[in-house]
């Protein structure tokens, strides 16, 4: 029983770090660009299918892991520049545009790759189990877990110690004041939107060996990312991290002990957090 609980704990934390990759990008986009990006799961799915295609054609998962976020991030920059630039502060239009964009991307992916469910194998270096005495556990979820923690630390360092991080924090806090100090909020928002979508693409490449690719996965991942961001607090990196851990644990152990109520438990957690702290666990209360 103890080994089963430990296995499920690691599974839950690995899934939580995958959700963190998604929620981190969504949180950055909302916090800086003030865009409600409901196409975020479609960027995840795009990254997953591009990772599958490039990994097969190049013969390297690691090359795909580098190239796919760059390609998806470039698409994100184009979307922000040509579709969303004039819609800042207009939430209804943002929602409609990004929902439509998500449908278009999902349909294009279905047209190119088909509607069959696809399982993606992990890279050879991370295939197979890790033996720790009597405990046996797959290597790949541990890689995802370590990658999520490392990315959290790197992003915190980036925001705290680099000039671009200072600009991001300034635009997040007060775009008008940041503009008077010589910072260009439009440029920072553009770059941040690209980074956020690149993180979704990265999540797709990393998540494909864990979650089989299928039509509808984009909507599912968008929903999970929104739940994580709402629980953790809009625009907060730390909130996305701890919110992802909470959602991952509730989902993992809910599927183990109450499989029919797993999604209900996640929504119940979100409702409880919103009832007690409407701004999220680590969010700032809005005036």
UniProtKB/TrEMBL annotation:
InterPro entries from the UniProt entry: ABC_transp_permease (IPR001851), BCAA_transport_permease (IPR052157)
GO BP field: amino acid transport
Protein keywords: Amino-acid transport, Cell membrane, Membrane, Transmembrane, Transmembrane helix, Transport
Subcellular location: Cell membrane
A Pfam family of this chain: BPD_transp_2
4Fe-4S found in the keyword field: no
GO cellular-component term (any): plasma membrane
Residues annotated as transmembrane: 12-31, 38-56, 62-83, 95-120, 140-159, 190-211, 223-249, 256-276
Membrane topology reported for the UniProt record: Multi-pass membrane protein
GO molecular function: transmembrane transporter activity
Family per record: Belongs to the binding-protein-dependent transport system permease family. LivHM subfamily.
Protein name per the record: Inner-membrane translocator
